[in-house]
UniProtKB/TrEMBL annotation:
Its main location: cytoplasm. The keyword Cytoplasm applies. It comes from the Bacteria. InterPro entries: SurE, SurE-like_Pase/nucleotidase, SurE-like_sf. Gene3D superfamilies: Survival protein SurE-like phosphatase/nucleotidase. SUPFAM superfamilies: SurE-like. The gene is surE. A divalent metal cation binds at residues 8-9, 43, 96. Belongs to the SurE nucleotidase family. This is 5'-nucleotidase SurE. GO terms for cellular component: cytoplasm. Transmembrane segments: none annotated.
Amino acid sequence: MRILITNDDGINAPGLKVLETIAEDLAGPDGEVWIVAPAFEQSGVGHCISYTHPMMVAKMGPRRYAAEGSPADCVLAGLHHVMGDERPDLILSGVNRGNNSAENALYSGTLGGAMEGALQGILSIAMSQYLGPYNFQADNPFEAAEQHGAALVRKLLGALPEDEDDYQLFFNVNFPPVPAEDVKGMRIAPQGFRRHTHFGIEPHRSPSGRQFLWIKGGDQHIPTAEGSDAAVNLEGYISVTPMRADLTAHDVLDQLKALE
């Protein structure tokens, strides 16, 4: 199996090393793992692409490249430049430091990389590690992802439905904020919504008197609706959410047709 991996935390992020381990397990001794990851952290860029300026790509080692761009840029660079004529069988993005459950998915560069892979017609899986009081200070906060990641991907690969839609499936996987031995299993879960929490602004003034604004996240431990992604994560389960890049609100199409 040929696997392309990327992330949004950057080429030197510990979560990318964890993803390398997962990918090497999946690829096997006769497979290939290619890495094209951002040269610098790209958290929160979503599905951004560098459409109006070029990006530099540097070879860091065998099958290992750093790109001055977003995760979606990295996927494009990997598919159309770095890997040559042979496309990968699978794209993995992550393992993100922090969850991409609920509304976080809308901001996530990790998800953006997987979304671009799906738009290019390749099965893509985004993987993120929820952090909390039971793993944040651990020697390896990615332990749950590291120990359960490869088996989870194999399970998905063995049960994929036929997918002939224009907007192909990709998957958002979030590992719970617990040690690996406390993971209770896996749940197929819809994307949730954390009520009464959202991103905001925290202003600061520099010593020179200039005003700077920091983006500030909300409480990540507010559960979402029962059975949805963040809710099952906080209960100790891995969440798997099938997604498409189609943003249409299909539930109101018929209702709005009365306006025609």
